[in-house]
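Pasting as-is:
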Amino acid sequence: AYLKRQDGVVSSNQNAVGFEAEDFTVKRLHLETGETVEADVYVSAVSLSAFLKLCPACVRRDYASLEKNGHSPILSINLWLSEPPFGSPLMEFLESDLQWGFDRFALWKGRGTSPGSFTFVVSAAEKYERMSSDALVRMALKNLEECFPGKKIECLHASVTWEKEATP
């Protein structure tokens, strides 16, 4: 929604197969359909390994050292709560399984999301990979109850997303 409001174009269900670059500037994006896309700005929202598959050799060599590193997953637990547990758009958690909390409704000024929409993030989340989505949601709710005693924490809806190769 944000990109569209900025006169950007969002294309879904289109697979990029590569791009052309000159002097570290993307010039064209090649799609699986054979189409070529030209734009002023491109956003890569894929893992490093997926990005490197798209890269021309002249760009890939600059990332060669990163290819040798392992990756850490990032876990996002998305909760739609009846009441906000905290009163700021961003919250850092200490001594908790959760690390960061984002009030998406506040951050996006109500555009594209609903009140009570929060995302809680855990970086380097290897130790949680074997947990089910339901168990992760229960863990997040328990952490919120411990961090905000006396607050009513009622979850209306939840989802869990992973980026398995988030951080080199």
